[in-house]
Design brief:
Blueprint: H1 11-21, E1 30-33, H2 34-40, E2 43-48, H3 58-67, H4 71-76, E3 78-81, H5 85-97, E4 101-105, H6 111-119, E5 123-126, H7 131-145, E6 148-149, H8 156-172, E7 178-182, H9 187-203, E8 208-214, H10 220-226, H11 249-258, E9 261-265, H12 267-281, H13 291-297, H14 300-303, E10 310-315, H15 322-335, E11 339-347, H16 352-362, E12 366-373, E13 383-391, H17 395-407, E14 413-414
Parallel strand pairs: 2-10, 3-4, 3-6, 4-5, 7-8, 7-10, 8-9
Antiparallel strand pairs: 1-2, 11-13, 11-14, 12-13
Protein name: threonine ammonia-lyase
Enzyme class: lyase
Organism: Arthrobacter ginkgonis
């Protein structure tokens, strides 16, 4: 159990970190989202850290931590482990500070993230099948070589650096009343909470700070309920940037004291939010950066009794593998009722496929793929299975297409 003590990071630490970061990081813009406002009934603004150098907020904390190294420590170099954003943040900070960086990344890491990390000048070592294995190897290397290990979130300088986003946000939106952001290990949420809550106290008003996790990687709700770090047995989410199975110890101390709530969203909601941001805000955001938008679209704030007038969502990163983006977009369109896949079992006789095609065309849906199978364990002699992908115009239109197929005697089964 944790004992309530003085927090490991203060407003003064965050303000000092901001001085260190002057001229180093982008003062990222805040974009008003009329579309989200119409969908939620609140005035919604997006803090675009997806437009930050190296594509995420991570460079803030990494640079603050590394800028404080002594000349002797800098000469020994730094080492870190990451599947993406932290790797790029450390690599970029090291390049700017003239420090040699070695980054351990898991086997199978997305090629764009691997390439970007190397392009920033870091030496990349592929090791292990997940971030935990890469992390363990990075720590072993630090012990054997003397290189300084740069943690992704469990460090006061890292937390203070991430907290500078909160200072910027309050300058850009002085009257904001609710701030949402994703949380993995907790460095971003903890740092922003320190800045926002302290500044709100100075102003004599309340600003709610709420974290959002993917429900399949949500270690904070059980940990906060137990007032202890509760590791997850399994983590599985498209939001790889927040796929952390155990909260950071220092962030947890801050979050349990300052953060108003940590809520969760589904994988389908993440996909829908990413598509929403692409279409309505023209922003490329990775799933981990879209969790706050997913929470708004799902009405999660209303579920916990929060009804904001002016809400800000921190879009924490935009580093998404194009191959993952293709899958997420398709899933997001499906969730929105704009992409429908059906499987239909038929007697193998002439004319059936033509009839199906006619019904779909008359229903004003657009077929994008047809798979026609006569062989399979579930098929009897003389049967055929047809799988059809089609573009539709929403849930109501999708249901009309299904009804029209049924009216012709077919039995379409929706494939998710």
């Amino acid at each position: 159990m944790f004992q309530k003590t003085q927090l490991p990071v203060t407003l003064a630490d965050v303000e000092a970190a901001r001085t260190v970061l002057e001229g180093v990081v982008e003062y990222t813009p805040v974009q008003h989202s009329r579309a989200l406002g119409l969908a939620t009934g609140s005035e919604v603004f997006l803090k675009c850290e997806n437009l930050q150098r190296a594509g995420s907020f991570k460079v803030r904390g990494a640079y603050v931590r590394m800028a404080k190294l002594s000349p002797e420590e800098k000469a020994r170099g730094v080492v870190a482990a990451s599947a993406g954003n932290h790797a790029q943040g450390v690599a970029q900070a090291a390049k700017r500070l003239g420090i040699k960086a070695r980054i351990y990344m898991p086997l199978g890491v997305a090629l764009p993230k691997l390439t970007a990390t190397r392009d920033h000048g870091a030496e990349v070592i592929l090791h292990g099948h997940n971030v935990d294995e890469a992390l363990a190897e990075a720590q072993r290397y630090a012990e054997s070589s003397g290189a300084v290990f740069v943690p992704p979130y469990d460090d006061p300088d890292i937390i203070a650096g991430q907290g500078t986003i909160g200072l910027e946000l309050l300058e850009q939106l002085p009257d904001v009343d609710t701030v949402l952001m994703g949380v993995g290990g907790g460095g971003l949420l903890a740092g922003v909470a320190v800045a926002i809550k302290a500044k709100a106290a100075e102003l004599g008003r309340e600003i709610k700070v709420i974290g959002v996790q993917a429900e399949n990687a949500a270690a904070y709700p059980p940990s906060l309920a137990a007032d202890a770090l509760v590791p997850l047995e399994r983590v599985s989410t498209i939001a790889d940037g927040i796929a952390v199975g155990r909260p950071g110890q220092l962030p947890f101390q801050i979050i349990r004291e300052l953060v108003d709530d940590v809520i969760t969203v589904s994988e389908d909601s993440l996909a829908a939010a990413l598509v929403f941001l692409l279409e309505r805000s023209k922003l490329v955001v990775e799933p981990a950066g879209a969790v706050g938008v997913a929470a708004l679209l799902d009405g999660k704030l209303e579920e916990i009794g929060v009804h904001p007038k002016k809400v800000a969502v921190i879009l924490s990163g935009g580093n998404i593998d194009p191959l993952l983006m293709l899958k997420v977009i398709q899933r997001g369109l499906s969730v929105a009722g704009r992409y429908l896949t059906v499987r239909i079992m038929l007697d193998d006789r002439p004319g059936s496929l033509a009839t199906i095609s006619r019904v779909i065309a008359e229903s004003d849906a657009n077929v994008t793929r047809v798979d026609h199978t006569r062989i399979g364990g579930a098929l009897s002699m003389g049967d055929v299975a047809i799988t059809i992908d089609m573009e539709t115009k929403g849930h109501t239109h999708s249901e009309q297409v299904l009804q029209n197929l049924r009216a012709e005697g077919f039995q379409p089964v929706v494939v998710h």
